[in-house]
Amino acid sequence: MKKLLIAFSLVSVFIAGFSSVGTPQEKYPNRPVQIVVAHRAGGGVDLFFRLLAEELKKTWKVPVTVENQFSAGGVTAANTVAQAKKDGQTVLGIIVGILSTMTAVKPDGPVNLTRDFDPILINPGYASVIYLVKSDSKFRTLKDVINYAREKPGELICGTGPRGSENFLEWELLKRVAGVDITTLSYQGSSEVYPQLLGGHIQIAGGADTSSKPYIDSGRMRPLVVDMKSPILPDVPTFAEAGYPEVNLITTVALLGPKGLPPAVTKAWDSTVKAILKNPEFLASLKKAGLNNHIEGDPLKMREFLNGEVKKYAQFSPEQLGLK
Q: Is the pTM of this model over 0.70?
């Protein structure tokens, strides 16, 4: 009987040890991590998360892959992560404005920023939105544009990104704050809007600092204003510096996990992000790519920021947000 009890105890210890593999007590991460990016490969958002993934691989010694799911305006990627296991192995890389828009217009919809996700990190103003004119334009400052628009309402045309994008909404917010009438035309991106500006079909164009710099350096375009200080165009004034601090829809990227991540997972991300932000090679890679570093990982600060973003987008109509 004694031998039987000893044998039973040994089996129990073996089973307990075996069953502990894969439990929450194990160090995170011990398996590949996937960042689902809700944007096309090759763009600034994609580049940011690929640079981050490279650093995570070095630190964690596990594969960290980036998968682009850009269909349905980001809804597909958001659903993928919202419905993923709450183990931190699948996370979402996205421009916050996309989810803020969906949440503001339809809080009980299929995807909700604050209901369905836990923030892991945010980077407000990861890249600067810029507004430009042709180099031979008579407009040298944003003030020049506003004064002309007051004298001749509706005559000026500004080309921006799609309805609902920060690029579009910032210009709409400027028009509201300044009390001017400027016609806005939406395009799919800088590859469409810049030729329109250079061809003289529009007078002002909105784009990204990175995509516009070659045109500025070659003397074909002149920058008027940016929404946030640009590391590659540091002399261009911001909306706040130009007298319009209310135009504050800074483009923010976020890394989000499904709601209910275990504390061990959030702790691992927090400590890793803090370590990465001390790595001069990573910071240099961001600067080389023309990306700003305002990365924040504090849970309370991130939640406060995201709640504020939803309130910002709630001031726009569904039509302006591109949802009608």
A: yes
